[in-house]
Design a protein that fits this description.
This protein is of the alpha+beta class. It contains 6 helices and 5 strands. Helix 2 runs antiparallel to helix 6 and helix 3 runs antiparallel to helix 5. The chain is elongated.
């Protein structure tokens, strides 16, 4: 007998199916806990999906604004700093991340400016492929080299406000970003899980009230 079924057999106070004092409404409230579990899960999923969506959307809109109203120019990268991190997931799958921070120097209307820039690259490697899992060769290469030229978009009113020219942002200019669609689809798929919990809770409550 499952735990849920045992709630139907007694009301937690020793009262059975036909015993005096049987309270089907109390049992319904107890079995309805799945509804609240589902609601909490749904809220957390929606919050997480919203954060992901708006991060993707705001990045694309900032790029679109500077693409339309800003100035495209070329800068020189200096003061490069590289940080590595690794994380081993389930089934021996390990991720490797390289974060590259630097300063870009550029000119807008004859004036020299400098702004900080940062880029993150990640890759995966199976734990069983090599015993040297933390070897530097497993990490993605830094995004830039010292003195490298990069294409940037700068704000006309505030030239220190810049974004890097990136192919995926260029591809989605004026459109809903692909990352935004992924966030919407992933959120919708994950909401199936709390929907099942909510349905189970509603069914349990209805059956309890029919006792």
């Amino acid at each position: 007998m499952s735990r849920t079924t045992s709630w139907y057999a007694n009301d937690g106070q020793g009262n059975g199916y036909f015993a005096p004092g049987w309270d089907s409404e109390r049992i319904a409230r107890r079995t309805g806990v799945f509804v609240w579990i589902g609601v909490v899960m749904a809220v957390l999923i929606i919050i997480g999906g919203s954060v992901l969506f708006f991060s993707q959307y705001s990045e694309q809109r900032a790029y679109d604004r500077l693409k339309t109203e800003g100035i495209q120019t070329t800068g020189t990268v200096t003061d490069i700093q590289v940080e590595h991190s690794t994380y081993r997931g389930r089934e021996g799958r390990r991720s490797y991340t390289t974060v590259t921070s630097a300063t870009v120097h550029y000119a807008v209307d004859g004036q020299e400016y400098s702004s900080p820039i940062e880029d993150r690259r990640s890759g995966f490697r199976k734990f069983t492929e090599t015993s040297y899992v933390r070897s530097p060769e497993n990490y993605p290469d830094p995004s830039w080299a010292e003195g490298q030229s990069v294409s940037i978009l700068a704000d006309r009113e505030n030239p220190r406000d810049v974004v890097l020219h990136k192919p995926y942002l260029e591809r989605d200019t004026g459109k809903m970003p692909v990352g935004g669609w992924i966030a919407i689809i992933a959120t919708g798929a994950l909401l199936i899980i709390p929907a099942l919990f909510i349905r189970a809770g509603i069914v349990n409550m209805r059956k309890a009230r029919e006792l």
